[in-house]
Specification:
By secondary structure, the protein is mainly α.
C-alpha cells in the first residue's frame, strides 16, 4: 500500500512538473510573439503614412476589445478544422504530435490578446519622451530597426513595470489552452479534480503553481529593472567644482 501511494505521488509530481513546463512554453512563445506584434503596431501608429496609422489603430482597438478567450477559441477551432499545416517545431511538452499545430494556433491567439494592450503601454512610454528627444531619435536613426533599438533603451524604465503586470495576466490566459487537446497546468488540475473528486487538493496545487510562476515573472522583471537602472553619480561639491 505504501509503495502504491509513493508511486502515485511521484507520478503526480512528474505530471504537474510536465504540465508546468508546458504552460511556461505556451507563455514564453506567446509573450515573445505578442511583444513583437506590439512593437510593429507602435511603429504603425507613429508612421507618417495615414493609412498605416489607421490600420494600426484599428488592430489595436480590435485586439483590446475582443476577449482573449474568444481569440484563443477561434484560433484553436480553425487549427482543428484545417488539420496539420506548416511543419512547425514540436516544442510543447505533453501535447502529442498531431496536435502540436493546435498549440501553435493557441500561441497566436494568446499573442493577439495581449498585443494591443502592450502596444498601448509602449506607446504611452514613447509619448512620455519630450518632443525634442523624439526629434533626435528621428534624426539619429533612419533605419526602423536602429530607431527601435535606441527607443527601447530610452523607455525601458517606463515600460517594464506595466509590461510585467500584463505578462502575469498573460500567464493566466494560457489556461484557455485547456479547452483543446493541448497540455497545460490548468488542464491537468481540472482533469485530476474531476477524476479523483479531490477538488480542494488539486485546486490548491493549481493555485500554488500559478502563484509561483507569477512570482517568478515578477521577480525577473524587477531584476531587469534594477539591472537597467542607471547608476547614480554623486553630486559634486563646491570644492570639487572649483
Amino acid at each position: 500500500m505504501f509503495q502504491d501511494d509513493t508511486g502515485s505521488s511521484l507520478a503526480l509530481v512528474l505530471s504537474v512538473g510536465q504540465a508546468t513546463v508546458a504552460t511556461l512554453t505556451l507563455w514564453a512563445a506567446s509573450a515573445a510573439l505578442s511583444i513583437v506584434l506590439a512593437l510593429v503596431l507602435v511603429q504603425g501608429i507613429n508612421s507618417p503614412l495615414r493609412p498605416v496609422r489607421l490600420v494600426s489603430v484599428a488592430l489595436i482597438n480590435t485586439t483590446r476589445g475582443i476577449p482573449t478567450s474568444v481569440l484563443v477559441i477561434a484560433a484553436g477551432m480553425l487549427a482543428m478544422g484545417s488539420g496539420a499545416g506548416l511543419p512547425l517545431p514540436a516544442i510543447f511538452v505533453g501535447t502529442i504530435a498531431p496536435f502540436q499545430h493546435i498549440a501553435w494556433a493557441i500561441v497566436f491567439g494568446l499573442a493577439l490578446g495581449s498585443s494591443g494592450h502592450l502596444a498601448m503601454i509602449f506607446q504611452a512610454a514613447y509619448g512620455a519622451l519630450d518632443s525634442g528627444r523624439r526629434d533626435q531619435l528621428q534624426l539619429l536613426a533612419h533605419h526602423p530597426l536602429r530607431k527601435l533599438g535606441i527607443l527601447l533603451r530610452e523607455v525601458l524604465g517606463l515600460v517594464l513595470p506595466p509590461t510585467g503586470t500584463r505578462l502575469i495576466h498573460h500567464l493566466h490566459n494560457t489556461a484557455f489552452a485547456s479547452l483543446f487537446p493541448v497540455a497545460d497546468l490548468f488542464g491537468l488540475i481540472r482533469g485530476q479534480s474531476e477524476a479523483s473528486a479531490q477538488v480542494f487538493l488539486f485546486t490548491t496545487v493549481g493555485a500554488l503553481g500559478y502563484a509561483g510562476l507569477s512570482l517568478a515573472i515578477w521577480a525577473a522583471v524587477r531584476g531587469l529593472e534594477r539591472a537597467l537602472r542607471p547608476a547614480r553619480t554623486p553630486v559634486q561639491t563646491m570644492d570639487q567644482t572649483a
